[in-house]
Amino acid sequence: MTIETKIAGLHTRIAGDGPPVVWIHGFPLSSRIFDGQLSIPARHILPDLPGFGASPAGEGVVTIDDYTAAVLQILDAAGVHQAVVAGISMGGYIALALARTAMERLCGLVLIDTRETADTPEAKAKRYVTADEVRQGGTAGVVESMFPKMLTQKTRTSDPENSERLRRIMESASPEGVIAASGAMAERKSSEELLPSIEVPTLVVVGAEDAITPPSDAERMRAAIPGAELAIIENAAHLSNFERPAEFNEIMQRFLDRTEPRR
Ligand code: MLT
Fold first, then answer.
1. Which atom of ligand 1 is nearest to the CA of 115?
2. How much distance in Å is there from the Cα of 258 to the middle of ligand 1?
3. How far is the CA of 96 from the centre of ligand 1 (A)?
4. Which of 12, 104, 128, 130 is the most buried (most CB within 10 A)?
5. Distance from the alpha carbon of residue 154 to the mean position of ligand 1, in angstroms
């Protein structure tokens, strides 16, 4: 059974039974990119960040810490003291911020196609150019430039149905949500210093063909986080869980089997 609810103003789905896993989506996406993970036996908590999926946009300047606070409110409202926090790309930035500010609420961390570093000055400036373009012309440009990097060329050709589903998810992002998230990512803190102090079991997953956050980023995080494990999924680009759900779910299931609630 899936419960659809609104917590902290955010549309959130809660589905399944088992260890709680909160899935935090990337940009410009929604929690729908995790639908392929719902077959994993777990209590899945799937928020749509503000302005994405079925969540209304927030107001004013938004930070990664604001998203983090909203996820904590969702865990509180769902009665979940500790969860495995799994974030992809921008969701990984949020998952790392959760580890920084509320490590006691995590019993596991899954970093999917993401990185720990802050933006370079060039990347940061580009985010604000993107935000201006969205203000003037809507989100079509962002979708067009990011869509080819999300899945491998092979999958885009061989699985047009799923590729179109992804495009529709991206097109459902609101301009306000995209502008706010661009600013939040531009201003995010580096998590480099945090990594050696992460004290929960950590799984790092990356698509072998991810050009946005390549395997070298994932390997760097694995090396810096005590005891972390790295899984590289072949024939996958930036959305490895979405593109290769069977492989991803097997890796995730093995990780969950080893993850216990902490005191
Ligand atoms: C994402 O998929 O969330 C974005 O590629 C993250 C980013 O632009 O840094």
1. 9
2. 29
3. 14
4. 12
5. 21
For the stretch 18-31, pLDDT in tens is 999 999 999 999 99
Look at the alpha carbons of 252, 255, 261, 263 in this order and tell me if their dihedral is positive or negative. Answer: negative
| CB of 90 sitting under 6 A from ligand 1 | yes
pTM: 0.97
Ligand 1 centroid–CA 28 distance in Å is 8
Residues contacting 10, CB < 8 A, separation 6+: 47, 48, 49, 50, 55, 70, 74
Q: Measured between alpha carbons, how far is 67 from 152 in angstroms, rounded to an integer? A: 29
Beta strand pairing status for 43-47 and 83-88? unpaired
Tens of pLDDT, residue by residue over 159-205, are: 999 999 999 999 999 999 999 999 999 999 999 999 999 999 999 99
Taking the CA atoms of residue 29, residue 35, residue 40 and residue 44 in that order, the dihedral angle to the nearest 10 degrees is 70
130 C-beta closer than 6 A to ligand 1: no
First CA to last CA distance, the chain: 29
